[in-house]
């Protein structure tokens, strides 16, 4: 066992083969979850002009500092400013303008008295502005006013390079009228299933065969982490065919080739040999469970990750090794894993390898607890479907008593 690589050493060696990809420009509606390829500065102030933050009356605060219920101030209404209208107007002493939220504040005005502080009630739309207004509430300079540049100043950094673009980020870019954003190109990942027992989903299942589920599973993981999956379907356990498909993946411009199965010690496990023949195998086998027979190397000049065939092993090793490679190619520093300390509500056993056990973790009375989702065989995909977390049992630990603390990786 001691000759096996640790998970962290395997990750370190593997990630050394990846660098961020070039950038491309995408329309905002295609950029969600993509990663900003450059720092983005504000091209103008936000707000671009000082405006009202409430419906009411724009005033000169000096006219109404002393206004109150018992001492209302009457102002002449000289203009009506809906949102979207730009008026060349200077408000003189003793005057007011009816103004709506978002409308530009006229020169001379420095505050807005909300309609609730006046004798006017806008009962529904379509009411004309009154000739005058009684102000019942005092106003200070700046009240209910959104100052030009109070949110963002022109030139400010608004989104840093390496940021995964969220809906609010895209909304922010749209505020500046940007239609395109530079993002790191999506990594193209060739996904290949190997095994004589596998059938594509559109065929009738023959005795002794199973459907190829890894293709669906792994392609979905690729897409989930912002990659583009190039699907190469099912390949039989034949060296020549495996080689031909790997060559097609290289010719197809894959940034990374991910295969599943055929990397163990079975009599028909040819994948490693094919990779060694046309490139090099950097490591094979990692001190973990599930997923020990993991292979990493370079096929021709393309990084290659050979995942084990059992669906849970394929899933876990993808999360551990393929995902960080995708994030690095996308230009994201650090991994975005969510780790939670939990109390085990049952005893847990391990075999001394670094283990990733399917579990349900949840908060109960202010405390995070976790229990396993049953049988941990690496072919039992249903216990992964029922889980929301992977419990991480460090290498060298063989048992954890009920009540002990552990780390849960929330999926
Ligand atoms: P292997 O690594 O080739 O020994 O495969 C390990 C186990 O995973 C076997 O039971 C295979 O049938 C199963 N397996 C391999 N590839 C797939 C796949 N694409 N979909 C579902 N199960 C698979
Ligand atoms: Mg096989």
* Ligands present: adenosine monophosphate, magnesium ion
Please tally the β strands and state the result.
27
Unreliable stretches: none
The main sheet orders its strands as 15-12-16-20-19-17
**What structural class should be given to the helix and strand makeup?**
alpha/beta
How many strands, which pairing sense, and closed or not: the largest β-sheet?
A: 6 strands, mixed
Helix content: 10-25%
Strand content range: 25-35%
Count of discrete alpha- or pi-helical segments spanning 4 or more residues: 8
Shape: elongated
Radius of gyration: 31 Å
Average pLDDT, all residues: 96
Q: How far is the N terminus from the C terminus?
A: 29 Å
Describe this structure in words.
The protein is α/β, with parallel strands linked by helices. 19% of the residues lie in helices and 31% in strands. It contains eight helices and 27 strands. It has helices at 7-15, 61-64, 167-175, 214-224, 239-251, 271-277, 311-329, 381-385; strands at residues 23-27, 40-41, 51-52, 56-59, 73-81, 95-99, 111-114, 132-135, 145-146, 157-159, 180-184, 188-194, 198-199, 210-211, 228-235, 256-260, 279-284, 288-289, 295-299, 302-307, 338-344, 348-349, 354-364, 367-372, 389-393, 399-400, 405-410. The strands form eight sheets. The chain has a six-stranded mixed sheet, sandwiched between helices. A five-stranded mixed sheet has the order 7-4-6-5-8. A five-stranded mixed beta barrel has the order 21-24-23-25-27. Strand 23 and strand 24 (367-372) form a beta hairpin. Helix 1 packs across helix 7. Bound molecules: adenosine monophosphate and magnesium ion. Magnesium ion is lined by residues 195, 261-262, 266, 309. The site of adenosine monophosphate has 18 residues, from loops.
């Amino acid at each position: 066992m001691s000759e096996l690589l640790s998970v962290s050493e395997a990750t370190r060696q593997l990630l050394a083969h990846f660098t961020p990809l070039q950038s491309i420009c995408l329309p905002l509606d295609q950029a969600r979850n993509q990663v900003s390829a450059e720092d983005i500065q504000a091209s103008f102030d936000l707000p671009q002009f000082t405006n009202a933050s409430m419906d009411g009356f724009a005033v000169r605060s000096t006219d109404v500092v002393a206004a109150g219920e018992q001492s209302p101030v009457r102002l002449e209404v000289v203009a009506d400013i809906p949102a979207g209208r730009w008026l060349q107007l200077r408000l003189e002493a003793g005057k007011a303008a009816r103004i709506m939220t978002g409308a530009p504040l006229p020169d001379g005005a420095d505050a807005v008295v909300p309609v609730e502080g006046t004798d006017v009630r806008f009962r529904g739309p379509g009411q004309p502005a009154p000739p005058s207004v009684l102000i019942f509430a005092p106003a200070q300079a700046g009240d209910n006013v959104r100052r030009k540049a109070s949110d963002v100043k022109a030139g400010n950094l608004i989104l840093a390079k390496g940021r995964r673009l969220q809906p609010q980020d895209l909304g922010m870019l749209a505020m500046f009228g940007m239609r395109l954003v530079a993002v790191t190109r999506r990594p193209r990942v060739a996904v290949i299933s190997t095994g004589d027992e596998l059938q594509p989903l559109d065929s009738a299942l023959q005795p002794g065969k199973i459907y190829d589920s890894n293709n669906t599973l792994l392609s979905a993981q690729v897409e989930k982490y912002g990659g583009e999956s190039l699907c190469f379907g099912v390949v039989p356990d034949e060296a020549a065919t495996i080689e031909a498909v790997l060559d097609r993946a290289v010719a197809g411009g894959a940034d990374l080739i991910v295969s599943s199965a055929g990397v163990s010690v079975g009599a028909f496990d040819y994948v490693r040999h094919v990779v060694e023949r046309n490139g090099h195998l950097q490591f094979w086998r990692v001190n973990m469970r599930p997923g020990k027979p993991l292979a990493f190397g370079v096929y021709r000049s393309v990084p290659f990750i050979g995942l084990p065939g059992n669906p849970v092993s394929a899933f876990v090793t993808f999360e551990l090794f393929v995902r960080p490679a995708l994030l690095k190619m996308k230009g994201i520093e650090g991994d975005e894993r969510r780790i939670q300390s939990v109390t085990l509500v049952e005893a847990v056993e391990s075999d001394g390898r670094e283990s990733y056990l399917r579990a349900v973790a949840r908060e109960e009375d202010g405390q995070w607890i976790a229990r396993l989702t049953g049988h941990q065989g690496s072919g039992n995909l249903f216990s992964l479907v029922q889980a929301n977390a992977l419990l991480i049992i460090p290498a060298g630990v063989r048992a954890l008593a009920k009540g002990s603390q552990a780390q849960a990786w929330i999926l």
